[in-house]
Amino acid sequence: MSFANPEFFWALLFIPILLVWYILRNRKLQGSIKITSLNTFSDLKTNISRHSIIALRCLGLAALITAIARPQTSLSWQNVTTEGIDIVIALDISGSMLAEDFRPNRLEASKDVAMDFIAERPNDRIGLVIYGGESFTQCPLTSDHDVLLNLFGGIQNGMIEDGTAIGMGLATAVNRLKDSEAKSKVVILLTDGSNNSGSIPPVTAAEIAREFGVRVYTVGVGSMGEARMPFQDQFGRIQYQNVPVRIDEKTLKDIASIADGKYFRATDKNKLENIYKEIDKLEKSKINVTDYKKKSEHFWPFASLAAALLLLEFLLKNIIFKSVV
Questions:
Q1: Per-domain residue ranges for the chain?
Q2: What's the pLDDT tens digit per position in 89-114?
Q3: What b/e string do you get for 175-201 counting C-beta neighbours within 10 Å, with b at 16 or more?
Q4: Which of 2, 46, 127, 312 is least enclosed by beta carbons within 10 angstroms?
Q5: From start to end of the chain, where are the E strands?
Q6: Does the model's pTM come out above 0.70?
Q7: What is the CATH code of the structural domain delimited by 85-284?
Q8: What does the pLDDT look like over 284-319, one tens digit per residue?
């Protein structure tokens, strides 16, 4: 509940002033004397009548002031019009994504940052394609981001044949967007290597993306130099070795150039987060929000209560207790 004229509540300060005046006046008009007499009961009746009258007056004034402040309840709703953006994230899950130059590794860091990105774009449809030696759609375009985030959380290395089919991953993502009617269609492609699998060359996939009006942002994931990589020895034990970081940046730049996008290099998780923030700024949807509000007045119950209390005070003072007040 809200009030249209809350400034009238300042008038409530008059009530304690009235009570103080009543107490001081009562003390001035009445003395105190100890006497053994039945008149004591008459004095008690007089005090009760006076106290009840002033109580009714205070309650009546409080109800009247509340009514003047105009209590209201409001019902509000919104009509939201959005010119959405359709985004497909194509994520490399090959074995090299387990390298630990990111914490805890490249794959988990990429998942965490992508999930944060998804959470910040509630008005867009987003899909997920994963690729290694082959590619498939893990989640088609959806506005149900809870489902998408659950599927993101379940991604792990080994779900598909190992390898890095960048062209296949991009082509699968474009296939998910080609029939979209969104004002902007975007692929965010992440990889830490170079194309070594699949039947579609990356540049060919980029040209297909351009034909369907799909913009492609490419992200090279990996530090400079060497990275610590886990592997299993012949006894099944996990061992580590440092391997060179080899990202085909030229191909990733070519893809971005052909498909009207941009290439980014993420050498750690913080830079990857900044890359997603930059993409977030580049791809903003327009949202028109219209607010509707309906207010209902609720001053009548308070006004009626005030009238009843003040009328009762008048009747008690001038009829019932007239002889004792």
A1: 2-75+292-320, 85-284
A2: 999 999 999 999 999 999 999 999 99
A3: bbbeebebebbbbbbbbbbebebbebe
A4: 2
A5: 2-3, 71-83, 85-92, 125-131, 135-142, 184-191, 214-221, 226-232, 238-244, 262-266, 286-297
A6: no
A7: 3.40.50.410
A8: 765 555 555 666 777 788 888 878 888 887 777 777
